[in-house]
Specification:
Length: about 55
């Protein structure tokens, strides 16, 4: 099966399964809040800066 066929099937599944769509959306929001919050990104940059400068 080609990738576009798989993507189309996945989209169709989400359109016909509102509970799955809700669960995936919730999980996505939680991941973004956990892994990409401002505080997390600032800490990652500071850690990188410290490693690069030997501080």
């Amino acid at each position: 099966m080609r990738r576009c066929d798989c993507a189309g099937a996945g989209i169709q599944t989400l359109l016909t399964d509102p509970l799955l769509l809700r669960d995936l959306a919730t999980a996505g929001r939680e991941r973004v809040a956990r892994d990409f919050s401002r505080d997390v990104i600032i800490k990652q940059y500071l850690d990188l800066y410290r490693r690069l400068t030997g501080a």
